[in-house]
Amino acid sequence: MDQVTAILDRLLALHPREIDLSLGRLERLLRALGNPEQRVPPVIHITGTNGKGSTTAIMRAILEAAGRKVHVYTSPHLVSFNERIRLAGELVSDERLIDALDRCEQANAGAEITFFEVTTAAAMLLFSEVPADILLLEVGLGGRLDATNVIKAPLASVITPLSMDHERYLGAALTDIAFEKAGILKPGAPAVIAPQPEEAAAVIAEVAADRGADLTLFGQDFTAYEEHGRFTYQDEAGLLDLPRPRLAGRHQIINAGMAIAALRRAGCLPDVAAIEQGLASVDWPGRLQPLTRGPVVDLCPDGAEVWLDGGHNPGASTAIAAFIGEQEERDARPLYLVTGMLKTKDPVGFFAPYAGLARHVATVPLVSSAVFREPEELVQAARAAGLDATPFAGLEAALSSIVMASHDDPEPPRVLICGSLYLVGEVLALNGMRPV
After folding, report:
1. Which residue ranges form the domains of the chain, and what is each CATH number?
2. The pTM is what?
3. Does the structure show a pLDDT above 90 at 370?
4. DSSP string over 286-352
């Protein structure tokens, strides 16, 4: 066991038996550390259900194309914990991470604290000690009581599209989830809001009015759309004719529009050349990521088109299925899903957009999480959504079944491995690809 894993395991043992969203434990630890969150670079704070990681990645790519030094905090990681913390453009080194975690462990002195809270404290230490121009800070869960919400005066707040997810912690209705997400809004700080269901938009507007946050709304104050293979962004400052973002899927047009609007409202949008370069270079592993080589691809049928995506709720699967449908119109191939999922997710809602699109679903367990839905349970959910499905003991067996099932097809299949970021991480590790 390496040193990073050893200290993370020790910190995980301090985790309360149940997740209790609050800021008290973290604020206590941050005081013991000298309040590093008060010395970080200017912050853009990002929450939402879907698209927050992609929006953050696009902002980072644009800022770095302009030569800015950018800190980034995201979660969860895919292969290595270090992916969660970028310091001035580079993933945190094991040495720096171990030192920060060790100082947090000593300052916490064995008190009960969640894993995300203590690792967020370590991130704040690192962000306060390494110079940078800006910090892109992504919420872990919710917003109002999330550990990242110790930031009091962000340059801007961002709320990406909302959907049902994490109902156990955020509430059983979309209005409950919207209230929790809107908890990152701060007095006087501009807030950039993605297209939302009507009931969620109403809650966000109410919280913003109560807190004195200035809303900038997609579709009202700015817009973004695809036209003739290009990406158009427009707001009161004018129109930008840009290349499509490098990330796959039409939903990335909304994410790119959100990124530009957020940087504009935060006062740090660079020139058009940097925006174009950022859109062309942005990378966000495990989100409609094509796999073209490696051991996982070798397990698939010859000539198969292989995609990897960690979206895990109905909103995400709707966007992914729309992209796959567009691919089908351009190049008709039989679609096979390989899916693993956490117990906390809605599998029937996830599978529903693929009805009539996927030929078969192979369900698998998650190796890297103990709280996964059994493959047999996922089969029942897939069938309830109108799909044919079979359980398998693991990824290799599932892919082997696709090889056999597609043997006589006139065209090589399209394989989508999906349903969980944990599954994405397992696939990338097996394929020898470390997200950078």
Report:
1. 3-281 (3.40.1190.10), 289-430 (3.90.190.20)
2. 0.91
3. no
4. TSSEEE-SSHHHHHSPTT-EEEEE---SHHHHHHHHHHHHHHHHHS---EEEEE--BTTS-HHHHHG
